Amino acid sequence: MNLLILSVLVVMIAATSAEQYTDRYDNINIDEILTHIIDAIQSSCSKCTEMQRKMSRKVVNFIKEQEKTFWEDLKHKYDPGDVYKPVYESFLAADD
């Protein structure tokens, strides 16, 4: 009986102390980032800093490779006619 009570307590404590993501990114201005998505796609991130280009490539290539359905949804939303496909494919393949 004591083992059962102890087990229930351990499970309850574990459930209440679930880990959270770090708050390190809580102050990033997401609205500002969102206003630049279309321009970044259309211009190969020409206004991005070197670090922004590197991180953008990493994120987008991850989505393309690991989240194929989500990638198709993004392409359909932001470039339904594949007008900018050569631009962003070239950008994603680059290593500058």
Second CATH tier, the architecture: Orthogonal Bundle
Overall helicity:
55-70%
Order of helices and strands: HHHHHH
Number of helices: 6
Indicate the overall shape.
Answer: globular
CA distance, first residue to last residue? 64 Å
For the record, the CATH class is: Mainly Alpha
Polypeptide structure, described:
- The chain is mainly alpha-helical and 96 residues long.
- It has a single domain, classed as Antennal chemosensory protein a6, CATH 1.10.2080.
- It has 6 helices and no strands.
- It has helices spanning 2-16, 30-35, 37-42, 50-66, 68-78, 85-93.
- The longest helix has 17 residues, at 50-66.
- It is globular, with a radius of gyration of 21 Å.
Helices, strands, pairings?
Layout: H1 2-16, H2 30-35, H3 37-42, H4 50-66, H5 68-78, H6 85-93
Helix pairs in contact: 4-5
In a nutshell, what does this entry contain?
This protein is mainly alpha-helical.
Task: Output the keywords.
96 residues, mainly alpha, Antennal chemosensory protein a6, 0% strand, OS_D_A10/PebIII_sf, signal, A10/PebIII
